[in-house]
Amino acid sequence: MVVIFDNNVLVSAVILKESLPRKAWNIASKNDQIISSKAILAELHQTILRHKFDKYISLELRLEFIFEVEASSKILPVSNNLNICRDPKDNKYLELALSGCADCIITGDNDLLVLHPFEHISIVSPQDYLSKF
């Protein structure tokens, strides 16, 4: 299966080691093809390096997780330009999903979840993703 992770799920996965987002990441990184884009990774870098997360997890562990995400993901160019999501910042996930022929977007973001299914692409929470295993 080809999957995309929303950055909020990835941030939860790195901060909360026993969380559903972390379990979803662990399973997907072993069983699925994870895809990402330069724009999504840039946002992940910007988000995960915020000082507000210092009290939860060290900068070193966050950087290691970014490396893990990059190493586990196939970085694809995006050839679609969409304006569908009610939060314009989330359109990049839909654009990648179409460009990369994704089967699933894993997110906790209601702005994306309300679009399920999108062009035959499942948009699911980490819990819903895990229920398939």
Provide a brief overview of the structure:
By secondary structure, the chain is an alpha/beta fold.
Structure description:
The protein has 133 residues and is α/β, with parallel strands linked by helices. It has a single domain (2-130), classed as 5'-nuclease (Rossmann fold, 3-Layer(aba) Sandwich), CATH 3.40.50.1010. It is 48% helix and 13% strand. The chain is built from seven helices and five strands, in the order E-H-H-E-H-H-E-H-E-H-E-H. Strands 3-2-1-4-5 form a five-stranded parallel β-sheet, with helices on both faces. Strand 4, helix 6 and strand 5 form a beta-alpha-beta unit. Helix 1 (7-15) crosses helix 2 (20-31) and helix 3 (38-48) runs antiparallel to helix 4. The mean pLDDT is 96.
User: Could you please say which CATH topology applies here?
Assistant: Rossmann fold
Instruction: Tell me what portion of residues adopts beta-strand conformation.
Output: 5-15%
- Give the C-level CATH assignment: Alpha Beta
Distance between the termini: 13 Å
Order of helices and strands: EHHEHHEHEHEH
Q: Rg to the nearest angstrom?
A: 14 Å
> Which architecture does the CATH hierarchy give at level 2?
3-Layer(aba) Sandwich
**Major sheet strand order:** 3-2-1-4-5
Query: From the helix content, strand content and strand pairing, which structural class follows?
Result: alpha/beta
Name the CATH superfamily assignment.
5'-nuclease
Q: Number of helix segments? A: 7
Uncertain regions: pLDDT < 50 for 5+ in a row? none
Which term fits the overall shape? Answer: globular
